[in-house]
Amino acid sequence: MLKLMRRAAIRSLVCAFAFFLLAGVASTPELNAAERGAPEIQTELSALPEPVKKMRERILEAARSGNIDAMHPIVEMNELKPTVSFGGANDPVAYWKQVSGDGQGREIMAIMIEILQMPFVHTAAGTSNEIYVWPYLTMLEPEKLTPSQQVDLYRLISPDEAKTMKEFGSYIHYRLGIGPDGTWHFFVAGD
User: Fold this and answer.
1) Model's pTM, two decimal places?
2) Can you give the residue ranges of every domain in the chain?
């Protein structure tokens, strides 16, 4: 029971933090994404600023290596390490090894690859909160996904997990954010 309560608390924090990071897009359920000012779903990597493209490629290259330690230089590029846990993980690579189902971080790297191959959203353009976020699903209400968007969701999670996400009312799986200057801000999940 305590574990379920802890997960619910973490999910609440994740959602609040994600909305803060995603430039405070309102979460009023009666408004659709367009009315909330949700960013346009983008598929063209050419729309990314060069520093964002480079960081995305660095992450992908390290993840594709199969060696989680290849992530060390990338997370160290930032002045502050990317947020990877709401529990205050000081060492992202050690944390990823710990939470990865295989104990080596390969599951986490596979998730990174899958997410970074999906469309993205560009939020809060021209503000201090501007960020590029993968996958685009972070900005959509799970119960309102189109059939093709549901397929994208199933690339990341099982149908049972999707059902839980719908009941929760928002996307709570991994998301990755990179600032326009190429700063890797976060790679977090809802539990």
Assistant:
1) 0.79
2) 2-188
